[in-house]
Fold each of these.
Amino acid sequence: MPDDTLTQIAAALERIAGRLEAMAPSGESQGPALGIEDAYHWDTAGNRLMPVPKVARVPFGLLKGIDSVRDTLLANTTQFARGFAANNALLWGARGMGKSSLVKAVHAEVAGHVPGRLILIEISREDIETLPRLMRLIAQQEARFIVFCDDLSFDKDETSYKSLKAILDGGLEGRPENALFCATSNRRHMMPRDMIDNERATAINPGEAVEEKVSLSDRFGLWLGFHNCDQPTYLSMIRGYCDAYGLAIDDDTLTARAIEWAQTRGARSGRVAIQFVRNLAGEMGKAI
């Protein structure tokens, strides 16, 4: 075969190899690149961590009415940040009572007081099947990570919860020692009651069918329950926000307006409280 033909073939093969290399996904062995931010969102399609320059969070000191669960999560996270034993945490219960706000506030509080780097990574509920891949990537980093999934729940016929079970407890790899998993859910077992009841009613062995579904929540070592607040707690939340944001209003007027606001919403919660305060601040011509 002529030398020029061999040269052309070699050049063509080199071009093909270059294109294939460019098309291939970046190797997992290198792990995701970390910048200076302390919070990221997991982009499963791009196999990368997207920086979150400013986290939407409530200051730790403004979280009212959840003192017990607040202190428990703070202690657990502090232990983890210092390299000690800690449990994965499930925050479950009433809507709008500060479950996700607590996770973000505790992260900021611990990161600001414990030496070393503590990073918060948010993973979408739709991407939970990729959690094992994310865990393998961050296991190679020197930092410590809180992996956070907000509003985690599963519907009928879903199997993605099995990936989470393997990471939490029971899988061959398990959870990396530098990672902690936190999830929030309105449901204690992350599955609707009618789904669990249906499994029990239609299965050949109802006990085993239900056990397979609800055993996921058992793999969280820390359960923190959030319940609807009473009126004094609701008013205390609002007064705390007003004082923190410099909204001058007398107690009688504030109480009357706050109660009226809650009645129009049909609920009392931390979310309803901050929504009222935003409305009040807007009327006063202030940004919060």
Amino acid sequence: MNAHEIDYHIYGEEMQYVEIELDPQEAVVAEAGSFMMMDQDIKMDTIFGDGSNQDTGVLGKLFSAGKRLLTGESLFMTAFLNIGQGKKQVSFASPYPGKIVPIDLSEKGGKFICQKDAFLCAAKGVSVGIEFSKRLGRGFFGGEGFIMQKLEGDGMAFVHAGGTMAKKVLAPGETLKVDTGCIVGFSHTVDYNIEFIGGIRNSVFGGEGLFFATLRGPGTVYIQSLPFSRLASRVWAAAPRGGGKDKGEGSILGGLGDLLDGDNRF
């Protein structure tokens, strides 16, 4: 194997974390902000890109890091290396309620496509790059632009799904229609496109957006019930307005109450 061969255990139900066991000189790479805890003999190091092409020279490292910038991620990732004599553990936590999904890339044909904010961590040697869309519809209306992340290699990677995770195995030609934000990731054999919902009433009054994703098999698709964007919009909608004073945004009066008591700041 080119990637480090790691063992792991996932703990928890709704707020999960993954504990990765590293043999001496084994390492794992992770996005900034996902680290939870580690044993004493694990060395933490900030690296350009994902650390999968450290022998390609300065230009190769810069290109790898530059690809991450296009997905909205940092130029840097963090590597955790076991420099001790025995097995050591390092743990990474999910960013919000949901499930951590282990992806064995050797069983996915060496490649897996995921939303840019779904990746959590992976064995060192796994390449975390970008996947350009070749279709204009997907690029303009897919919710994530032309770019998604692709994980390549033969090691273990871990992605996060918000809420409850659904795993769908599609037969050749079988199609699944999904809200664009609810996609966590899918096998590289899955054909992914964006379709217009259609109909004036559906488009204007449906409340589900104008487009949905169509995923056509063969391959495996992972779906999340609670995308972070949906969670954030609900929290924002329920947040008190007017200097933090809650006047019952959920009541019948709503904003009218602000006018009646003289607070007309919006």
